Amino acid sequence: MGKLTHKGVKGMSEPGMYGDGEGLWLRVAVSGSKSWVLRIAVHGKRREFGLGSVKWVSLAEAREMAREMRKEARMGGVPESVRARQTLTLEEATRKVYEAQRPTWKNAKHAETWIRSLEIHVLPRIGF
To answer: Are residues 60 and 109 in the same domain?
Structure first.
């Protein structure tokens, strides 16, 4: 089986696991949701790490995260530490959600109001 492609990932709807190579898998659930999974051996035991939803993590990002986690495991470390270093801040997560949802909103004013209200009321109080 060849490597997955961005277009191929978008078109997959049949539930199952689809390999990209080197332990990276696309999991398609019965509900239709899609997520990235890394299957590797850590200290001699097979482990499975969730890398995130296809909505929020691109194929390129999943490959990069998998590469870093495999490298950490080879060096005797704990791959969770790599994932912790890649955790988004609240502001980064907010902007990512905003960019993903913006095309679905009916008008530009709604999009602007949504992000501005978070910038004014939420981000300063909870933190960046």
So the answer is: no
